[in-house]
Amino acid sequence: MDAERASGYRYGNRAYLVQLRRAGAGTWLIDPIAVPDLAPLQEAIGDTEWILHAATQDLPCLAEVGMRPAALFDTELGGRLAGLPRVGLSAVVEHYLGLSLAKEHSAVDWSTRPLPEPWLRYAALDVEVLAEVRDRLAADLAQQGKAELAAQEFDALTRFTGPPQRTDPWRRTSGMHRLRDRRALARVRELWQTRDDIARERDLAPGRVLPDALIVQLAASDPRTGEDLTALSSSGGVSQRGRRRPAHRSLARYQRQWLEAVRRADQLPQAQLPPSALRSDAPPPPRAWADREPVAAARLAVVRERLTEVSEQQQIPVENLLTPDSLRRVLWTPPDPADEGDSVPR
């Protein structure tokens, strides 16, 4: 199974094409826009194992159309556990089958209708050979003694619902680090939310409404009038062919919304301005541990060395043994041995 999204073109990550292949039934390409409820297909599949590549990318959008796996095999994660040097779909297929997958349509707008036939052929190829790859990869995992480990990891993925919601997602605006003033940060926040509202309403990727660079530029320049926006657009808004870039056209099209967003930020009381940075419950950067907590730094050095040894012995990347964030948290504030009923080295 596979799904194609229109990332970079449309708002959100909904599926615009679902590809299925099953032995004895062939390959099917389904349009979830025309058929938005695939629950009957889910019922027909039942408990049959899904084979996906990089499952976390597709599971949320498949759940939106009523499809959730009872069991799955992830060829990307399986490749990591098997110690493959590269785990992209093309690399895994080439490793096991000696075939090269064409990738010329990987970044196209899958919300296009009708979908061109070459795109459909390209999409079908992504599932044509997955079952054979799965069987050869499963054999490798079994030969390496990792079949049970992989099964547990795949089972955990059946309960994956998506990445955690971020606090203040506007803080991920690219280039915002150049703004030091809290008032300017408030403008970024208001402009980001305004852009998100427009993008959701028009079903466009936010960056196609207004790129991050222009949000930062608006926040820094504090425009007050339409003339200010026109000057900003004129300063860098003409392409080499003499046409305005779409993003700069949106400055004029949504002039009122941008100016209102800036005005709201400028009228906020000082106490309501966003802090320069969010407080984090994460440990400090490891480079600071030696000065702040030498015992924790010693723990980290020992555990990193042992994890590296296990990683090399098992041919599994360190991050698949234990995520860096989990490692730092448990070593900075280890569990109390009395609570755990066991001895924990400190």
TrEMBL record:
This is 3'-5' exonuclease. Residues 337-346 have a biased composition (Acidic residues). Keywords: Exonuclease, Hydrolase, Nuclease. It comes from the Bacteria. SMART domains: 35EXOc (SM00474), HRDC (SM00341). Gene3D superfamilies: HRDC domain, Ribonuclease H-like superfamily/Ribonuclease H. Residues 241-250 have a biased composition (Basic residues). Residues 226-250, 269-292, 309-346 are annotated as: Disordered. One of its GO terms (molecular function) is exonuclease activity. Pfam families: DNA_pol_A_exo1, DNA_pol_A_exoN, HRDC. The keyword rRNA-binding does not apply. Residues 181-272 form the HRDC domain.
